[in-house]
Amino acid sequence: MIVRSLEDLKAQGRYREKPGAWSSSRYLLRDDDVGFTLTQTTVAAGTRQMMQYKNHVEANLIIDGEGTVTDIATGETHALAPGVMYTLDKHDRHELVAETDFRIVCVFTPALVGEETHDHDGSDPVL
């Protein structure tokens, strides 16, 4: 059984942040050998992020906050609020806009190593 607190993550180097923009608490990573990654991500109000996970599928459940996600290929925009889930099942290029501070639970497959950083087009490499 794996049990971790936010304090554990910070002590283990599993917490990353860009002050004023986002933070990522990485509860499960590839070295946990469960086949997926589980994170809690916070996004600051007023931020916009253009992303495309070319190498991963990501599912997101909004816990707190409001904003929108736009599918760049179709132009379709979806309202995000607590209880809304969106999944980037086709490696969708998308823009996330936080109208208020957001708290999101995210699941990635394949599992992330934990050292990934978004490249120029907002994608994470497979490490």
The residue-averaged pLDDT reads: 92
Please report the distance between the alpha carbons of the first and last residues: 25 Å
Helix content: under 10%
Largest sheet properties: 6 strands, antiparallel
Name the quaternary structure. single chain
Number of strands: 10
The chain-level structural class is mainly beta
Helix count from the secondary structure assignment: 1
Unreliable stretches covering 5 or more consecutive residues: none
Please compute the radius of gyration using only Cα atoms.
14 Å
Key phrases:
about 130 residues; mainly beta; six-stranded antiparallel β-sheet; 1 helix
Polypeptide structure, described:
Helix content is 5%, strand content 43%. The two termini are 25 Å apart. The strands form two sheets. Strands 1-2-3-10-5-8 form a six-stranded antiparallel sheet. It contains one helix and ten strands; from the N terminus they run αββββββββββ. β1 and β2 form a beta hairpin. The mean pLDDT is 92.
